[in-house]
Amino acid sequence: MADAVNTQLRERSVPTAGLGLRTGMFDAATACTAAGMWFEVHPENYMVDGGPRLSQLETVRARHPISLHGVGLSLAADVPPDVHHLQRLRALVRRFDPFLVSEHLAWSTWDGVYRPDLLPIPRTDEALARVATNIAHAQDVLQRQLLVENPSHYLCFSNHDYDELEFLTELCRRTGCGLLLDVNNTYVSARNLTFDAQAFLDAVPAQYIGELHLAGHSHDPSLGAALLIDSHDTPVCNDVWRLYARLIRRVGHRPTLLERDDAIPAFDTLLEERNRAAALLHAGGRCDAL
What we know:
globular, alpha/beta, 8-stranded parallel barrel, 12 strands, 42% helix, disordered N terminus, TIM Barrel, two-stranded antiparallel sheet
């Protein structure tokens, strides 16, 4: 009997599928008892010395694991990450002990000014060396492994030296970072740039995948379905669910986040979609769990 209870407790404590923690969600998040539940936060919203946000996050953290998913390190910029930003991030890592820390393969700063977007880079030898240096430096300061997220693509560059998977894999090999593999980003990019999303996901080395993201997307207001936008304002589509299930069957359990950043429904509605991902993880990606 004791062994069965201990097994149930371990299963409840292992992060399975999680949700992004948003303003107004703290009470529901704290009260949630779903097995394996965890919450992702953007650290830039908590880089303060005190106040209600930090207090609320501490309350949630006492009940659930959290991850920090940064949007401001600008790892692909032509300069190292901002010293003060990195120090504030380190303080949050030490305070909240997230089980994952991640960032984007993108740049968002230029001449000391932050841009309100995550901007792409050409995958050149020069860019690879620069990004690898920035990731290694950030990991040294944080004393944590970073997971780097594959971006959504909307246009083709003509001067790539590497395809996307080669670039990501080489970053992992050089720095020891891992991948936050966003299944929806892959699907959006594949539709926009006309490549095979399934073949891409099938080829990602399993040993580098530390986390998965799922999200919804929308059609461009002018071009319609000819251009998909990674908008995070709709439920996950069936094609992305099928890609996710196939991926789980190949690589096994990976902590998975359901992203919703706009047109956010009630917590119970979010939880239903989150539970779908948790069921697929529990079933090893078997399609009957869909």
